[in-house]
TrEMBL record:
Keywords: ATP-binding, Cytoplasm, Cytoskeleton, Microtubule, Motor protein, Nucleotide-binding. One of its GO terms (biological process) is spindle elongation. ATP binds at G78, Q79, T80, G81, S82, G83, K84, T85. It comes from the Eukaryota. Belongs to the TRAFAC class myosin-kinesin ATPase superfamily. Kinesin family. SUPFAM superfamilies: P-loop containing nucleoside triphosphate hydrolases. The gene is Kif12. Residues 1-356 form the Kinesin motor domain. One of its GO terms (molecular function) is microtubule motor activity. This is Kinesin-like protein. GO terms for cellular component: microtubule; microtubule associated complex. It comes from Nyctibius bracteatus (Rufous potoo).
Length: 360
């Protein structure tokens, strides 16, 4: 769980701080009507740096597991304006011309740097590709394909599970190229492959840069087999040649970053028209996600059918939620007394998610 600082608007308005970190992964919410304590794997208060979140959340281990062939996912979820996109990507003002200060980089950029470090030291032969999708008004759109984003069909197969048909995957020769893609994506005048800038955002009463879609950036990590036997410039005589076992077998893993659109109350955001339709679709898909998490949190013997098909978001995240992958969920909350209801909702949501176990 990550608690953002009070904003200038909240401070000037006189909002009280109702969320306090007690240490050891414990968080306390205290008001006149509510007094509750929650326990999590880690709690990062308002003063925690981006680097401390990366190291303390286990993100570095997740990167190493992806290189080792596992399917890994990191979620950021919470109320609109709670800091989800900042946690994943860093400041929205960064661009190629004005990159963010190293200390402000988010989980994505730090993960890319960690991947680069691993490829240079202990994991030679890494091949990387990336795909970038958004779910907007229950339509899946490819953010990397040239031209206006168009809806893509979501299919099912026994071998692949749910997948997006005709999705574009971009190969990268270096991890710096993936980081450049993110920097271009935050540029106000992006080139054709600037995925995040093409993502739907709008301004309303609670957030000037509110994400109006769920975004999924997936890095595919393929490690080629590396022979463990001695290398010779000339062939050895036949009697002396013995096949050597592969010291590092080929593996294929994924690292998926999921930036969920924020939950919001339409009345408080002042949304109307198209914004209202977007908000209803966002809340509907988040409700479906919460329902799946609630059922997955039950003991395996007491589980009923998990309704992944209730939304396109839960279909695409089916394997991450209850399958064979490894998932990190970062709940972002506001400490403001005005956001108490949404904060408690997010903390209960995260408490249920913590009880979900997968079999990687």
């Amino acid at each position: 769980v990550r608690v953002r600082p009070l904003t200038c608007t909240e401070t000037q308005r006189g909002d009280r701080r109702v969320v306090h970190s007690l240490g050891d992964g414990t968080i306390h919410v205290s008001t006149a009507r509510h007094d509750a304590t929650f326990g999590f794997s880690a709690v990062f208060d308002a003063g925690t740096s981006q680097e401390a979140v990366f190291e303390g959340s286990g993100m570095r281990q997740l990167v190493e597991l992806a290189i080792d062939g596992f399917s890994c996912t990191v979620f950021a979820f919470g109320q609109t304006g709670s800091g989800k996109t900042y946690t994943l990507m860093g400041p929205l003002t960064q661009s190629e011309a004005q990159p963010a200060a190293p200390g402000l980089l988010g989980l994505m950029q730090r993960s890319f740097a960690c991947l680069l470090e691993q490829s240079r030291s202990g994991s030679p032969g890494l091949a990387l590709s990336a795909s970038y999708l958004e779910i907007y008004n229950e339509q899946v759109r490819d953010l990397l394909s040239p031209g206006p984003p168009c809806a893509l069909p979501l299919r099912w197969s026994k071998t692949r599970g749910f997948y997006v048909e005709n999705q574009l995957s971009v190969d990268f020769e270096s991890l710096e190229a993936i980081a450049d893609l993110l920097l271009q994506a935050l540029n106000p005048h992006p080139p054709p492959l600037a995925g995040s800038q093409r993502r739907r955002t709008s301004a309303h009463a609670l957030n000037r840069h509110s994400s109006r879609s769920h975004a999924l950036l997936t890095i595919h990590v393929r490690r080629r087999a590396v022979s463990g036997g001695p290398q010779h410039d000339t062939p050895l005589p036949a009697p002396m040649w013995v096949p050597q076992p592969s010291a590092c077998p080929s593996k294929q893993g994924t690292l998926c970053f999921v930036d969920l659109a924020g939950s919001e109350r339409v009345k408080e955001t002042g949304s109307s028209g198209e914004l209202c339709v977007e908000a209803n679709n966002i809340n509907r898909s988040l409700l479906a996600l919460g329902h799946c998490i609630s059922l997955l949190a039950k003991p395996r013997g007491k589980r009923t059918h998990i309704p992944y098909r209730d939304s396109k978001l839960t279909r695409l995240l089916a394997r991450s939620l209850g399958g064979s992958g490894i998932t990190l969920m970062v709940a972002c909350i506001s400490p403001s007394s005005r956001c108490l209801s949404e904060t408690l909702s997010t903390l209960h949501y995260a408490s249920r998610a913590r009880r979900v176990t997968t079999r990687p």
